[in-house]
Amino acid sequence: MFHFEQPYYFYLLLCIPVLIALFVAITIHNNKLRAHFGALIGLERLAPNISRLKGPLKFGLMMLAIAFLVVAMANPRMGNKTQSVKQEGVDIFIALDISRSMWAEDIKPNRMERARQFAQKLVKAVRGDRVGLILFAGHPYLQMPLTTDYAAAQLFVQTASPKLDITQGTAIESAIDMVVELGEKEEQKKQRALIVITDGENHELDAVETAKIAKSKGVTTYVIGIGTESGAPIPIKDAGYAQFQLDKAGQVVQSKMNTSLIERIAVSGGGNFYKANSNADVVVAKLVHKMSKLEKTEFEQQEFDVYESYFQIFVAIALLLLIVEFFISYRKSNWLKESR
C-alpha cells in the first residue's frame, strides 16, 4: 500500500503560489519600469542579448525543485511485504499485600509505600516479559491482567492501597491459587513467576503447601518481605486523628513481619525470599536475574508491513532541476525563439 509517512509537510507547498505571485508582481513592475525608462536610456542597445524568457524559466525550475523536495520530505513509501515477529518471555504476576498492617510505619514512610516503590522498580526492570497485578487482603482480585504495557502497570501499582479492600486478612494462599487457575485457563501451559510483596501478617499456614502445589504446576513463588521483626502499631487512616488498631483486649496491636513463615512459602514455592526494607535496587536486580533463568515461552506474535521509502527519487529529480537551472544563463540562445 502506497502512502506518505509524514504528509503534513505538504503544507509547505502553499508557499509556492505565494512565491509565484510575488515573482509575477515583481516582473510586471519591472516591465513597467523598462517600458517607461527603456526608450530614454536605450536599454535594448545596452543589453541586446538579455532574454526575457530565461528569468521565468529559471524561476519555474526552482519552484519545481522545491515541490519535489517537499514530496521527498513527506517520504513516499510502499509496503511490499509482511514480517512476523515473535515475542518470548516469562509471565510475571505481582501479588501486592494491601491489608491494613501495611500502614505500619516501622519502615518509612510506611510499608505500603515501600511495597509500591519496590513493585514499580520491578516493573521498570523487566523488559520483554508480561506483567500482571494481583491485590490481596482478605480476598485476592486481579487488578490488571498480563500485559506488556508497563506504563499502565506502573499506574495500577501506584493506586494500590488498603483503602481498596474492606475485607481484611492476608490471603496469600488464595492469591497463589488465582495464578494457578489463570494458567490453567490457557491452552498453552507456561511457566510463571509469582512475586508476593507482603509483611507476612495473618498468613494461612496452608499457603506453604499451596506454594508447593503451585510449583508442580509451573508457578515459581518469590516473596519480598516488607517490615521489621520488631514491628510497629497499625495506624487507622480513616480516623482523622492519631489512632491505632486495637485487639479484643483493647491493647494496641503491634504488627511484625512474619519472616519465618513467608520464607517457608518462598522455599516451598521453588523461589527465594528477600527483605526489601532499604536495598530495593539490589533485591530487584537479584530477582530479575533469578527470573531470567525461568523457561521462556512465546506469548505474542505481531505482524507488520515492511515499507520501502522512495524519497531518494524525488531528491534526485529536485537536484537535477537545480543543476539545469544553474547552467541556464540569462542570455538569448538560438534554440529558444523569443520576441523582443
TrEMBL record:
Which SMART domains does the annotation name?
VWA
Q: Which controlled-vocabulary keywords does the entry list?
A: Cell membrane, Membrane, Transmembrane, Transmembrane helix
The UniProt record lists the keyword DNA repair: no
All copies of domain VWFA, residue ranges: 91-291
The record's section on Gene3D superfamilies has: von Willebrand factor, type A domain (3.40.50.410)
> Per the UniProt record, which residue ranges are transmembrane?
6-28, 55-74, 310-330
Q: Which residues form a coiled coil?
A: none
Q: Which InterPro entries match?
A: Aerotolerance_reg_N, UPF0353/GerABKA_families, VWF_A, vWFA_dom_sf
On the tree of life, the source organism's domain of life is Bacteria
Quote the SUPFAM superfamilies the UniProt record gives.
vWA-like (SSF53300)
Spell out the PROSITE patterns in the cross-references: VWFA (PS50234)
Q: Do you know which Pfam families this protein is assigned to?
A: BatA (PF07584), VWA_2 (PF13519)
Protein name, entry field: VWFA domain-containing protein
